[in-house]
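Minutes, project check-in
Item: structure for the 322-residue chain
Input as provided by the requester:
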Amino acid sequence: MIELAYMERNGMKIDRLRLTWIGLTVLLLIAFVGCKKHEDTLQVDAIKSRGKDPPTLVLGLLPDRKAIDVISENNILGLYLEEVLNKEIKLIVSSSYSEMIKAATEGKIDIGYFGPVSYTLAKAKYDIEPFASPIRSGLTTYRSIIIVNNKKNISTLEELKESRVAFGDRASTSSRLYPQLMLSLAGLEYKKDYEVIYYGSHDNVALAVQSGKADAGGIGSYNFSKMIQEGSIDPLKIKVLAKSPPIPRDPWTMRANLSPELKEKIRIAFITLDNKDILKTFGAEGFAEVSDKDYNGIRKAIEILQLKPEELIKAMPSKRLI
């Protein structure tokens, strides 16, 4: 009513009273944004100032499945670390691989579990140190293999020219990166000398090769052996054409600027871990020491293939790929 009376008396289409309220609102919004910006800055500063020996350690986990399931499965690990490190442990699960990398580069994770490729990408942006990796079948490495359909009568990588090659996911280490590298070293250019079909997972790649939808495919050696054991694929219909050099498994990492004493305690906690329930979560027999140089092969593969880190991060899946 005040507005209407003001307008009628002055014969104006835009009332000054409303403009006054708009002006006040804008000023309040500016003040709020300024406070919010300051608040965000304080949060970042708080992260940076957590120090070398914080009372609470943040442990970042891969987004394998639903966050609630990942947290539930790893609660026992958190309890174990709280006991041996005498620290409070906070478990977090990122929404995706790219978010995990972002959290690490912003210093929000003290201890993190990465995939081989995601580790190298995070390491390039922030100083983190790999210190342990799961042992499976007595090894901390595995291989990528290229498989072919036996009916295709293919015996060399060179013979895959003008064929259909199946990959898992664009960001998979053993179902895309290393298979593409092996083909490149054999003189076959990606998408030029062979057709590429992405099937999203290792299992789908093997099934596509077996059915003849693809002539060949890249898959992790562990996944291939597991599918044969489970009877998912017939070893008489598929053969292994090529194997990659050993690939390092997923590394546990920690912030490089933690105190040397704390880093040593964390390292020992994992290397000496023998709790079967915890190890079962990672499908591991134990954890062995690793270092950054163990992942130079991953970097070299990315370099040879001229893959851009930004594109790899964008292609990172929300589910775990090997």
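Outcome recorded: Confidence is low (pLDDT under 50) at residues 1-47.
No further action items on this chain.
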